[in-house]
Amino acid sequence: QVQLVESGGGLVQAGGSLRLSCAASGRTFSQYFMAWFRQAPGKEREFVAAVIWSGSTRYYADSAKGRFTISRDNAKNTVDLQMNSLQFEDTAVYYCGASQQYCMAKSCVDYWGQGTQVTVSS
Fold it and tell me: Residue 39: what pLDDT?
């Protein structure tokens, strides 16, 4: 069992930055493939970024490449998402997800956090 708690969301102007953090409980955090997803009003939840167990390989949605960076610290049981050059279109609730599979689809996620709101003003 893994419990996930996101933090770091807020209101930021276009062009600004935010750093989201996801804190996980449980001793097996390092065994999970971790990912960030987001869901804008009226839209499906979509993949943003993911990092494998060791942290050595990362994946990004096209919309996130070059602007967002995912990282994890297995000693602290955390996975962060640094978001730079934020755009109005990045406004969404951001969710942290943990999966025992090497998979970036939301259907693969075994555990979800409660989400944190990111609002980008234009």
Answer: 98
Tens of pLDDT, residue by residue over 73-83, are 999 999 999 99
Query: Rounded to the nearest 5 degrees, what angle is found at the Cα of 14, between the Cα atoms of 80 and 105?
Result: 40
CB 98 within 8 A of CB 64: no
How far is the C-alpha of 95 from the C-alpha of 28, rounded, in Å? Answer: 20
Amino acid at 122: S
- Looking at the chain, how many residues does it have? 122
Confidence of residue 100 (pLDDT cuts 50, 70, 90): very high
Look-up of token digits 């000693």: 75
- The most distant pair of C-alpha atoms in the chain lies apart, rounded to whole Å, by 41
